[in-house]
Amino acid sequence: MGTETIEATQQLLELIAVVILSGVVMAKISDIVKLPDVVLFILAGVILGPSFLNLINIDRYPLGNQLILTFGAAYILYDGGREIELKVLNKVKLSVLLLATVGVLISTAITGFFAAKIFHLDLMFALLIGSVIASTDPSVLVPLFKNMKISSKLKQTIISESAFNDAAGAIITFSILGALTGGSLSVGESALELLKTAGGGIIVGTIFGLIATRLITENRMGFLKEFPSEISLVTVIGAYVFSEHFHFSGFMAVFIVGMICGNKKMLNCFIPEEHYITQSRFKEVMTIILRMMIFVMLGTHIQFDVLAKYWQSDLLVVLILIFVARPVSAFVSVMFDRKAKWTFKEIMYLMWIRETGVIPAALAGMLVSMKLPNSEIISSVTFTAIIITLTFQASTSKYLAKLLKLEE
Question: What is the dihedral of CA 168, 387, 41, 82, to 10 degrees?
Answer without folding.
Answer: -30
